[in-house]
Design a protein that fits this description.
The complex is a heterodimer of chains A (about 400) and B (about 300). Chain A is about 40% helix and about 25% strand. In chain A, strand 11 and strand 12 form a beta hairpin. With about 400 residues, chain A is α+β, with helices and mostly antiparallel strands. Chain A is elongated, with a radius of gyration of 26 Å. Helix content of chain B is about 35%, strand content about 20%. The chains are: A alpha+beta (about 400), B alpha/beta (about 300).
Chain lengths: ~400, ~300
């Protein structure tokens, strides 16, 4: 889960990081008041869980409380990259002399967390060349020398060196303690007096560690609310998924084609979706099923997919299954279609799930005149067959 | 004619009394796997499918020495179980459990590397050397496994457990047997990558070709390509990249946790290009795999 800047900064502030003063506002009047309290010159930033806000026009400056109010009025209610802006961070404007990038994340290559630091901080750090990569341990207790070595590598000296090295160590500690998937301070600004400032920060929490981070999660409620925002279609799908623990219906994503898809599991859904697009067919959705879903779950998903007005056909494609029962999926799809008063033989353009209980599944489909494809027809060949039918 | 596991491999199952293990242990034994001991703390002295259960790995190994362990305990306990296996000298761990916190995965991989224990997974469906043994749950029931997999000379490594059985089944249908198939797991952080396993297949005299199922995200394919460009393999390598459409939907996750394209990293198109440049036979359609294997190594595979 991505944590918005304001909540990330509050967490960092609690740990002693140098965070500029600021507050969260939801109206232009509040922006005016906060700006007045902060002494006039402020920066206003939309609180959405996405990067690239500057480029998307989500960051503005105000030289006075009145200007801040005006800018806040322009930003609030805007739709930026799919999110409606209803909160702004109004923060004192810090004069930064130079910018540094400091971050920690997991690196698949070294199979460990890695600290990244660069003196070319700012918006386009990804394309900057000289980034220091320093893997650190999840087993050994954190040690302060790592921070000093990184600070030395970046060429800092004196008080700036000492303060920076302690920030590096704090980043490592918070990253591990919070079960972060990513913690980035970018930019970490250095002002003319040699003080460091957390100008912007990005925190991603590892969803798989939520079970042991209850206290932390109470401090990021706004981000949790944003993360749970779904389209109506996705919401209905996740309701179906949650109503029955058997099997999983992964994220349902809607497209505007006429071919409904029930595909799975993880790798086969990728393969099937590629094949559908390669064949020039128009998918209505992406929907990944797995585990051993109940008849009810499949029936409801079928109805949800077919309830979109432009959808007139349905393809059911999975890899050779061992856990999923072919007959239960077949039963669910048929039931869903019958409940919508449609003809399974006309709606289902392909049903391809080889594996456990396939004979029973095949018998059900035969009864309704639906063509069954087994393991002898590979995924791309099934899609090719659909194309030939249309 | 296999890597990592063969007919002699003695298997320990950590979490043997769990719901998932209940199914795969019984079916693995039916397939011929030598599951010799299990561990569930507090259930020592019991039997599960005829396999003795112990409270600790140390006690299990003392009674019944093992060559490999399958870790199938709930996510919060995997790190501990893996450390226990590594500290007791096990050299191979297959981790079935998914949704393990990243910090735990990194911690267990770090400890395993110190102790010299190879980790396959997490989120792996297991390793199978057809006709010999299965360490994990790939392919499901013994009869289904026999139908999808058959002994032979082609290695398969897959980031998707389901697609591993799909590819094996496709090969089997076309009379191409498999030496060993490894489901390495679809997570971003895993113990064994394509590149880690390649030398093992190269050293196996009975492996004559290698098939890879790749996905968007991560840099595992790129690392393999970099290696192959400098050290060409004696094995012809065939790769299929699932999820090409992800290039058009940046930042959105489809399929596995590891398959996300962000910026230039992890793009399927990029992976296909570097693999091709490194001499890998990248196919656009799954159904092309058997034909290309026949072309590359002849009918005797």
């Amino acid at each position: 889960m991505r944590i918005v800047e304001y909540e990330t900064k509050q967490l960092l502030k609690d740990q002693g990081f140098p965070v500029p003063q600021g507050d969260l506002v939801s109206s232009p009047q509040e922006a005016n008041q906060v700006a007045a309290r902060l002494g006039g010159q402020v920066v206003l930033k939309v609180q959405i869980p996405l990067g690239g806000r500057m480029k998307a026009g989500g960051v503005r400056f105000g030289d006075s409380p009145e200007a801040a109010e005006l800018e806040a009025g322009a930003l609030l209610g805007q739709k930026i990259r799919g999110f409606t802006v209803d909160r702004l961070l109004v923060e004192e404007k810090i004069s930064i002399a130079s910018e540094v990038y400091l971050g920690a994340l997991y690196d698949a290559n070294s199979r460990s967390p890695v600290l990244l630091a660069s003196t070319s901080g700012g918006i386009d750090v990804e394309s900057a060349g000289s980034v220091i990569r320093r893997p650190f341990s999840c087993v050994l207790p954190p040690s302060d020398y790592i921070g000093r070595e990184v600070a030395a590598q970046l060429g800092f000296t004196g008080q700036v060196f000492l303060r920076f090295s302690s920030l590096v160590n704090q980043v490592i500690q918070c990253f591990l303690k919070w079960d972060a998937a990513l913690l980035e301070i970018n930019p970490l600004g250095l002002d003319a007096r040699g003080a460091w400032w957390v100008a912007d920060a990005h925190l991603d929490l590892d969803d798989d560690a939520a079970f042991r981070q209850a206290q932390l999660l109470e401090k990021v409620l706004y981000s949790a609310k944003l993360a749970s925002q779904k389209s109506e279609f996705e919401l209905l799908a996740s309701k179906i998924n949650q109503a029955d623990h058997r099997g999983v219906a992964g994220r349902l994503v809607r497209f505007d084609g006429n071919l409904g898809l029930l595909i799975g599991g993880g790798g086969a859904s990728l393969t099937s979706f590629d094949a559908v697009l390669d064949a020039g067919l128009k998918p209505a959705n992406y929907c990944e099923i797995g585990g051993n879903p109940s008849v009810w779950k499949i029936q409801e998903l079928t109805k949800l997919i077919l309830s979109q007005p432009q959808v007139d056909r349905l393809a059911v494609i999975m890899n050779v299954v061992s856990n999923t029962r072919v007959d239960l999926v077949a039963r669910g799809v048929i039931k869903g279609i019958l409940q919508m008063n449609l003809d399974p033989a006309k709606v289902i353009v392909a049903f391809r799930i080889p594996g456990s209980w396939e004979n029973e599944g095949r018998a059900i489909l035969d009864h309704y005149g639906v063509r069954y494809f087994g393991r002898e027809t590979s995924i791309d060949q099934v899609v090719e067959a659909i194309k030939c039918q249309s | 004619m296999s890597i990592l596991v063969n007919t002699d491999t003695r298997i320990l199952v950590q979490g043997i009394t769990g719901r998932e293990a209940a199914t795969f242990v019984r079916e693995s034994i039916q397939y011929g796997a030598r599951v010799v001991a299990g561990v569930t703390p507090g259930k020592g002295g019991m039997q599960a499918h005829g396999v003795p259960v112990f409270d600790t790995v140390a006690a299990a190994l003392k009674a019944n020495p093992c060559d490999a362990t399958i870790i199938s305990v709930p996510a919060p306990f995997v790190r501990d179980a893996a450390w226990e296996a590594a500290n007791n000298g096990l050299k191979l761990a297959v981790i079935i459990t998914e949704n393990i916190p990243k910090r735990d995965v990194a911690a267990l991989l770090e400890r395993a590397s110190t102790c010299g224990m190879r980790v396959v997974g997490p989120n792996s469906l297991g390793i199978i050397s057809p006709g010999q043994t299965r360490v994990g749950m790939c392919g499901g029931k013994a009869e289904d496994v026999r139908r999808a997999y058959k002994p032979g000379f082609t290695g398969v490594i897959s980031r998707s457990g389901g697609m591993m059985t799909e590819i094996a089944s496709l090969l089997t249908q076309n009379d191409i047997g498999q030496s060993t198939c490894v489901s390495i797991g679809g997570d971003p952080l895993i113990g064994s990558t394509f590149l880690d396993l390649l030398p093992l297949y190269e050293d196996d005299p009975n492996t004559r070709a290698l098939v890879l199922f790749c996905e968007p995200g991560g840099t595992m394919e790129e690392r393999l390509a970099e290696h192959l460009a400098v050290h060409p393999s004696r094995l012809p390598v065939v790769a299929f990249v699932g999820g090409r459409f992800a290039d058009r939907m940046q930042g959105q996750r489809f399929g596995h946790a590891g398959s996300i394209v962000e910026g230039n990293s992890g793009s399927p198109a990029g992976k296909m290009e570097v693999l091709r440049k490194a001499g890998v036979h990248v196919v656009e359609k799954l159904s092309q795999i058997p034909g290309i294997i026949h072309d590359l190594v002849g009918r005797e595979v």
